């Protein structure tokens, strides 16, 4: 059997999985801590991609073209987007904490529409992509873009970092405690509003990182955010809201299933994912790794 | 509530009988009768669209406003209804593309039951969940149906859609088709009103307010939710059936979540707390879209900003805001003892 095409799909599936993980981890954290399902998460990711592109182009013009220019571009974008996330929480999201679910969803969905058009206003209809000019490597009788490994490495590093942050640092422990009981954390004298703003900024920061890392692989295009956010919802539902391990495993499931479905049923790749979501929601609504308590 | 000393005018009595929906429905009905007299066919066309999408949004509100669940896949039933009608339409029409009046009406009848059947299957699973899980499961089912229609080329013509749904000559006149739509939508709305004011409708409100308590009182939660899901699906199917002959074609996008979003937007703009709110939302949304799209491609930015403003400053939509004003204003005219009663909105059902 020729394993070439399968290896190719596996690698692209895994790197897609890592991007989904970076996004879903933030989504899941934000939902866990403040009970807001952020529709605009993937749109913020898309904005970050465009911003990274512009910063990268600017840096390349100033200091000469080099793939390494992507690093400072990503760092600058993550910082800027975290600030934007902080501001969004402060001025918009915060007003809806005591509202009902549909209104919260509508507010973040309004952001999807607005930010999508802002992208159109600033960057136009053209797709944006960075070509790093990396040579493909020969593996498994086929050519694999080594950048896949950069993405997979980044994903695993972030997963490990998040685990360390949530389990070993004081702030991380507070965040986890807030997932279980906001009232209790607040009663212990910890300023919950500050935690909210920081968690939101952290989530947006992860999304921005994903945007920058993804840029050399797939072009940023208008409307992609809607595809991605639906897949992120699938990931958090399959993995279970609030579970980091679940989010990681579910990202790999969704990424790889999507990637292999393209091989067999190109139009129905997303349909396969929805089938999994339906099965999980029917038989185990709290997700593979979630706990029944949270559900 | 004791009899009020203040004499009541007809509007006030209308409000007593039907809530804020009473006067608004009457005003909308009066305005809708006159639409074809506006110059040009354009506004008649927009008016038909307002009615069809308004009916779709009102069917969504059976789930949202009355049952307290938000569905992101409601367009699936709108689309399934549209496809059922379109397919029967295509099978019945002659090779020259003509269709007789009886066959046309028959094809319209196909939409609602097929949509209801789809809602029965999907709803069977969805009513087990509530809140965010209900929202995501309806989204997943809706998208699944979308992909089935999208990729089953031999049965549905895939992303080409079905074209050439030209109604009989009498209904090719936009004014005739407008009044036909108005009659159907009005009849459907009257039926929906009857359902929401029945004991069943009030049981749904109990589910919305406190599902656990409703279960303790002996209400069968799932059976009520499923019945309502099917009813909402059937009415979405009525709207879908009208859509094909109106736009002369159907496409898979009708099932997608973008279309579901339209019902959500309309309901939120008009106000999900009142019966006629979604229709008012459709009037605003559809007419605004028709006008804004003439001048700019930035329609999402426009509607996004409007929704943002509504969520921030007018939760409950436009009718919710007006209703609140009316209650406060009427409360002010009453004896102080009654004021406390009016201040608690839960004592009077909102309509």
Topology:
The complex is a heterodimer of chains A (295) and B (351).
Chain A: H1 4-34, H2 41-63, H3 70-91, H4 101-123, E1 137-139, E2 142-144, H5 147-168, H6 170-180, H7 182-187, H8 192-214, H9 224-239, H10 244-264, H11 269-283
Antiparallel strand pairs in A: 1-2
Helix pairs in contact in A: 1-5, 1-6, 1-8, 1-9, 1-10, 2-3, 2-4, 2-8, 2-9, 3-8, 5-6, 9-10, 9-11, 10-11
Chain B: H1 10-18, H2 21-34, H3 42-66, H4 75-92, H5 101-126, H6 131-151, H7 153-156, H8 169-172, H9 174-196, H10 199-209, H11 211-216, H12 221-247, H13 257-270, H14 277-295, H15 299-313, H16 317-332, H17 336-343
Count of separate structural domains of chain A: 2
CATH architecture of chain B: Orthogonal Bundle
Treating each run of at least 4 consecutive H or I residues as one helix, how many helices of chain B? Answer: 17
Compute the number of helices of chain A.
11
Counted up, domains of chain B total: 1
Task: List unreliable stretches of 5+ residues of chain A.
Answer: none
| CA gyration radius of chain A, whole angstroms | 19 Å
What does this entry look like structurally?
The complex is a heterodimer of chains A (about 300) and B (about 350). Chain A has about 300 residues and is mainly alpha-helical. Chain A has two domains: about 20-130 and about 140-220, no CATH class; about 225-295. Chain A is built from eleven helices and two strands. In chain A, a hairpin with a 2-residue loop joins β1 and β2. In chain A, α2 runs antiparallel to α3 (about 70-90) and α2 crosses α9. The longest helix of chain A has about 30 residues, at about 5-35. The relative contact order of chain A is 0.19. The model of chain A has no long low-confidence stretch (mean pLDDT about 85). Chain B has 17 helices and no strands. The interface of A and B includes residues 101, 105, 285 and 295 of A.
């Amino acid at each position: 059997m020729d394993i070439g095409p399968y290896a190719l799909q596996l690698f692209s599936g895994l790197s897609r999985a890592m991007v989904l993980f970076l996004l879903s981890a933030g989504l899941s954290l934000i939902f866990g801590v403040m009970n807001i399902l952020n529709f605009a998460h993937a749109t913020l990711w898309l904005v970050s991609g465009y911003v990274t592109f512009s910063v990268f182009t600017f840096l390349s013009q100033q200091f000469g073209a080099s793939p390494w220019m992507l690093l400072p571009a990503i760092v600058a974008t993550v910082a800027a987007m975290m600030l934007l996330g902080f501001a969004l929480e402060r001025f918009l999201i915060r007003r809806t904490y005591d509202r009902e679910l549909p209104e919260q969803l509508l507010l973040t969905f309004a952001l999807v529409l607005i930010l999508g058009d802002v992208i159109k206003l600033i960057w136009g209809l053209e797709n944006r992509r960075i070509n790093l000019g990396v040579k493909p490597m020969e593996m498994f009788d086929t050519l694999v873009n080594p950048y896949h490994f950069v993405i997979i490495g980044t994903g695993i590093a972030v997963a490990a970092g998040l685990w360390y942050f949530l389990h070993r640092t004081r702030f991380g422990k507070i965040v986890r405690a807030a997932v279980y009981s906001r009232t209790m954390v607040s009663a212990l004298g910890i300023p919950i509003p500050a935690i909210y703003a920081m968690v939101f900024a952290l989530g947006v920061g992860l999304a921005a990182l994903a945007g920058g890392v993804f840029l050399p692989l797939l072009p940023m295009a208008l409307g992609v955010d809607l595809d991605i956010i639906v897949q992120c919802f699938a990931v958090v539902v399959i993995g279970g809201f609030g579970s980091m391990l679940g989010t990681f495993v579910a990202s790999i499931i969704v990424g790889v299933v999507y990637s292999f479905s393209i091989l067999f049923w190109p139009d129905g790749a997303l349909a396969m994912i929805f089938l999994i979501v339906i099965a999980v929601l029917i038989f185990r609504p709290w997700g593979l790794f979630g706990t029944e308590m949270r559900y | 509530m004791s009899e009020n000393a203040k004499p009541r005018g007809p509007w006030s009595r209308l409000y007593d009988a039907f809530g804020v929906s009473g006067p608004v429905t009457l005003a909308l009905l009066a305005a809708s009768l006159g639409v074809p007299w506006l110059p040009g066919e354009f506004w008649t066309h927009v008016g038909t669209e307002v009615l069809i999408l308004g009916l779709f949004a009102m069917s969504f509100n059976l789930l949202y406003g009355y049952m307290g669940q938000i569905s992101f896949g409601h367009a699936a039933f709108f689309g399934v209804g549209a496809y059922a009608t379109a397919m029967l339409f295509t099978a019945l029409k002659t090779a020259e593309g003509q269709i007789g009046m009886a066959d046309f009406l028959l094809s319209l009848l196909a939409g609602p039951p097929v949509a209801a059947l789809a809602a029965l299957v999907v709803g069977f699973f969805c009513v087990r969940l509530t809140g965010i899980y209900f929202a995501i499961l309806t989204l997943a089912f809706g998208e699944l149906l979308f992909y089935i229609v999208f990729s089953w080329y031999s049965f549905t013509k895939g992303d080409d859609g079905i074209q050439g749904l030209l109604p009989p000559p009498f209904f090719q006149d936009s004014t005739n088709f407008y009044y036909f739509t108005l009659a159907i939508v009005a009849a459907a709305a009257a039926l929906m009103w009857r359902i929401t004011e029945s004991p069943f409708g009030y049981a749904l409100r109990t589910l919305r307010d406190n599902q656990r308590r409703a279960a303790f009182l002996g209400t069968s939660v799932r059976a009520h939710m499923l019945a309502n899901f099917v009813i909402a699906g059937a009415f979405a199917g009525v709207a879908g059936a009208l859509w094909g002959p109106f736009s002369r074609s159907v496409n898979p996008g009708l099932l997608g979540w973008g279309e579901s979003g339209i019902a959500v937007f309309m309901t939120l703009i008009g106000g999900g707390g009142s019966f006629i709110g979604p229709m008012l939302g459709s009037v605003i949304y559809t007419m605004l879209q028709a006008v804004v799209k003439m001048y700019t491609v930035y329609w999402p930015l426009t509607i996004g900003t409007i929704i943002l403003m509504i969520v921030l400053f007018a939760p409950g939509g436009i009718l919710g805001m007006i209703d609140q004003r009316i209650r406060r204003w009427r409360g002010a005219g009453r004896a102080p003892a009654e004021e406390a009663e009016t201040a608690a909105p839960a004592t009077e059902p909102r309509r």
